[in-house]
Each structure stands twice: as structure tokens, then as C-alpha cells.
Amino acid sequence: AMKKDDLRYFLHPTSSIVDMESWGGPKIIEEGCGIRLKSIEGKTIIDCGAGLWLNNVGLGRTELAEAAKQQMEKLSYFQTFNGYSHPLVIETAKKVAGMIPMDNPRIFFTSGGSESNDTAYKLARMYWYLQGKPNKHHIIARTKAYHGVSYGAVSATSLPGFWDGFRPLVPAFHHIEHPHCYFCPWGKEQDQCNLECAEALEEKIIELGKENVAAFTAEPIIGTGGAIVPPDGYYQRIHEICDKYDVLFIADEVITGFGRTGKMFGMLHYGVQADIMMMAKGITSGYIPMGAVGISERVFTPIKSHGIFMHGYTYSGHPVACAVALKNIEIVERENLAENARVVGEQLRSRIRDLSLPCIGEVRGIGLINGVQLVQDDAARIKFGPEIGFAKRVSAIAWENGLALRPLMDDGLQLSPALVITETDVIELVDKLGRSIKQAYDEFLG
Ligand code: PLP
């Protein structure tokens, strides 16, 4: 009955209605603890994705429930508009400001990643506008980027399907090719590479005219587009180009923030500071919706002179979200979860490589943001293709084997469990994953 009611009443985000109908309804989860879920049928399942790349501290933490409860009882809500504030939003802003790789930042709060992205683009445009350069408003993003679905964020996104039926998008968003050595768009091998993927930014800025370009935005490590790690030197070169043409660099750390990559923030791997930084997801581990934007002194200065940032969400700096964020960050730090992500991430990738299945190509990632590339031929880098739906088939079999495993586009699999995962869990996960991939491959070979 629950499944029927779901089909009858609920419009799901980004879910195939045809698939859900063919299954007789969605897969319903009713409980969770650590990295494990329980379905309404009573089945235990390992969540390979930490929800949508977000649950860093694991499910079922009573400390977080307690923090939310106490704050709801004390002050469930008050606005941060109109000159009001409250103790926890101040504490959270101070905490986040002290953590992010940015000198002397200000923090703006949102309810999630799309809002953080829209806020960042508005800040970038306003920054130039306030300096008498209203034409410097073009924003460059990358193919395979996922920045969310609000109109600004979806205009920066570049994944199949997200634009269909929604045009016109916000004007003046552009895309350059994303870096991915395994499938290098320039057909280069690493030893002959001249970082064409970074040079593409310079070409695009010249094409648009530097007097027209406000900002370049990127996920430090591409998430939804496939868990793709850029080559060495990429961000250093990107940063040089941004400096040369006076273009802001905006880092979307919605997935990579708060420990997932093995360091607290993704850009810490590259030694490059962003002018504006977006956060969400891991800031509360998804226990409550929240996002944030880090704003460098450079970007804040003209806004301060101007006197007001005419932008905000009802839930900007929500007291309960702040209470949860503070407690969540405390757990991430206390339990050294970034370090655990680094160590266990390496174990995960090496055990998947050790499966030595011919249909496993690149096993990529850093910390616990990982992708497994399924291929018909690793040497020639030939994918299965959408007609075959191989990753989708693997994911269906994996569900039967006790894994919630998301197929990514282009035959990728997402492996981004909660950062509390242990080596023992990894052994179980990889065993189930290996059996699922093998079964799908045997079926494919017939
Ligand atoms: N940016 C990145 C890198 C994301 O991965 C996501 C969500 O997956 C978003 C932005 C959008 O966040 P939200 O769904 O909270 O609006």
C-alpha cells in the first residue's frame, strides 16, 4: 500500500517514473545506522553513496538529534534579516570561517547547495558591478559539472537531461571541457599532456573578452559527473589564468567540503584559494538542510562599501541547522573523519582494483569520493553505452545483494560511503560489489 501511495501522491526528484512503476513502487528505506540502511521489507543494505554524497558522520547519531531538540526548544527560529542575529549563527559563521582555506572570510548561509551556488554567482556579478563593470558578468563552468537545479545553478550545470524542457536558461553561462585523463577529450596520454583542459579556460576567456568574464566555477573534484580527479597542476594553472585575466575563481565544495576527500576541503589538495566557496551537504551530514558560502575579503570589501547584500533566504542561518552543523563539525573533527576517509578510501580503491574484472576500467577518486568506470574494453577505453545500461543493471543486482549503489552517467558507479566506514565494512562492500559486477558481466556475455 505504501508503494502504491508513493506512486499515486509523490513526484520524486530525478527518478525514472517508468522504472518505479515497473518495480511496483520505489525502494523504501525506513531506518539507518552508520553506513547501513533498513528497507521496509527488513533488509539490511550498505549505503554506498552516503545518501547524495552527504552523510559524513553516518546515520543515527543521537548527539545530532539532541542538539536539534535542545535548539528547537530554546529558539526554533528567528530571522537573520533586518539586523537580527542569534548566538548559534554567529558561532557557526566563526567556526566555518576558521576552517575553510580562505583568508579572513565572511560566511553567508543558505538551505542547500543550489542556493549556495546562486548566491555565489550573484556575489560574483555584484562584485564587478560595484566596480563599474556591469558587463563583466559572464560565468564559465565545465562540462559534467553538477551545481544544482535552481535556475542559476542549473545554468552552470552541464549534465544530460537537466536542461531539457527548462529553457531559456540564465544567460551568460558558458562551459569548457572538464579534465579527465582516462577519457582525455584531447586524446592525450599523460606524458604528452600540456594541460589542454586548463588552457581551455584561457581560450574561452579570450573568446568572450576578459572585460566580460566575471568568474570561473568548478567542483574541486567532479562529483555527480563521475567522481573525476583533475590531473596534477590543473588548478595551479587555472588559478594563474584567473589571475592573469582578473576573473574570480569560485569553488563548489558542496560535496568535497567537511572531510570527504581526505582533507577538510577539496581545494586543500591543490594549494589554491578560491574567491568564493560553496558548501552544503557535509556541513550537517544531511541531518538537516543547510548550505553556506565562504566569501573572501576581496569579494566582501566592495559589498561592505556598498552597504547591503540584497539577497537572502528565510532559512539563512536557521538556528536549528546551526546547532546541528556545529555538533556535526565537532564529530568530524573529534573522530578524525577526514583522515579515515583518506585511509579507507585507499583501501576501497585498491580492493576494487584487486577484483581484476575485465569490465572494470578506471577506479578513480580521492578519499571517499570515488567512481568505478565500467568498460567493454579497458585498453581501448570503450564504454558499454546507454543502450546497454550496464551500470544500471549492476546497480539493480547490487540492490539484491544488499548494496544501495548509484549508477552514474557513462557507465560509472558511485562509491562515496559515510566517512565512518571501516576496513571490515569495505571488505563486505567490495565482495558484494564484485559479485554484482560479475553477474551483470556474465549476463552481458550471455
Ligand atoms: N553543487 C554540487 C557539487 C552538488 O553535488 C550538488 C548536489 O548534489 C549541488 C551543488 C546542489 O545541492 P542541492 O541539491 O542541495 O541544492
TrEMBL record:
Keyword Zinc-finger listed: no
Signal peptide extent: none
InterPro entries per record: Aminotrans_3, Aminotrans_3_PPA_site, PyrdxlP-dep_Trfase, PyrdxlP-dep_Trfase_major, PyrdxlP-dep_Trfase_small
Keywords assigned by UniProt, alphabetized: Aminotransferase, Pyridoxal phosphate, Transferase
One term of GO molecular function: pyridoxal phosphate binding
Gene3D superfamilies associated with the record: Aspartate Aminotransferase, domain 1, Type I PLP-dependent aspartate aminotransferase-like (Major domain)
Family: Belongs to the class-III pyridoxal-phosphate-dependent aminotransferase family.
Protein name: Adenosylmethionine-8-amino-7-oxononanoate aminotransferase
